[in-house]
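Example record for the data management plan.
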Amino acid sequence: MRRNLLSSAFLALVLGILYLTTSSNSGGITGVSTVGCTCHGSSSNQTTMTLTGIPSTGWVAVPPTP
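Corresponding structural encoding:
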């Protein structure tokens, strides 16, 4: 019984990995889409980015301590 369960789990894992490797596009969406990635909505010139938590003086590199 336990051997059948382990065999089934192993087969499911192998089939899952096989599916992912055969259905993935190693080159990404380059050449597939002409308008960029639209997976999370359409592109827009109205998109803005907001960063919070950055000091008003900007980021200052600090050398690592030995």
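Summary line stored alongside the record: Residues 43 and 56 are 30 Å apart (CA to CA).
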